[in-house]
Structures are given as structure tokens and as C-alpha cells.
Write a structure and sequence with these properties.
CATH topology of one domain: Thrombin, subunit H
Helix content: under 10%
Distance between the termini: 43 Å
Order of helices and strands: EEEEEEH
Structural class: mainly beta
Shape: globular
Radius of gyration: 14 Å
Number of strands: 6
Number of helices: 1
Length: 107
């Protein structure tokens, strides 16, 4: 299966507007290539050849023209031991660990 690709055409906080080529669907996971990082995001709206994606990480540094790769897989949550008692973001990143790295304030 060939994965779809795209580019950022607008960034508004954690909401990105993406122009893409290929086939994607709502709920699909994609990644924005930001220098040496790959920021995970979820497709929340598809309209023609553009999509809106919500990034679950710090979007500082994302700008027009940055490359996006779509996984072809829908966002899913794996249930199992350790899930209860821990708070996760939409991509199952434990928020406590993200806060320890900096960038999140948990009370």
C-alpha cells in the first residue's frame, strides 16, 4: 500500500491545514517532519485534496511547506494493564512523561 504525502499550507496552533496527494481518511494518523523530529497528528477533516490535522505535541517550528506523511492506519487505543490511573493524550503518549520533558503543566 502506497502511503499518501502532503505539505503544510497553514498552521494555527495545533491545527494544521494540509494539501495532500493520495488517499487518506478521517481518523488516520500522520506525521509532520519537523527537522529531526516526527510529530504525530490525527486527520480530523478531509475536504477534497486538503485535510485538517490535530497535532498532539508542541507545534513550535512548524511552517508552510513542511512535509507530512500519512500512515494509512486509523488512530486507535490499546487497552490493557497500566491504562487505568494514567492520563494519555490522543496518541497514547503518557502526559506525565511529556510534562517531565517540559512543555506541559500538570496540576
Amino acid at each position: 500500500m502506497k502511503t499518501a504525502t502532503g505539505t503544510v499550507i497553514k498552521a494555527l496552533g495545533n491545527l494544521l491545514h494540509i494539501a495532500f496527494e493520495g488517499s487518506i481518511r478521517q481518523g488516520e494518523v500522520g506525521s509532520v517532519n519537523l527537522h529531526d523530529q516526527s510529530l504525530m497528528a490525527e486527520v480530523i477533516v478531509v475536504a477534497g485534496d486538503t485535510a485538517n490535522m490535530q497535532v498532539f505535541e508542541d507545534t513550535k517550528g512548524i511552517s508552510y511547506g513542511m512535509k507530512v506523511t500519512f500512515s494509512g492506519h486509523l488512530l486507535e487505543a490499546e487497552l490493557g494493564p497500566g491504562l487505568l490511573g494514567t492520563v494519555f493524550d490522543g496518541l497514547q503518549n503518557p502526559l506525565r512523561k511529556l510534562a517531565d520533558k517540559g512543555g506541559l503543566l500538570l496540576e
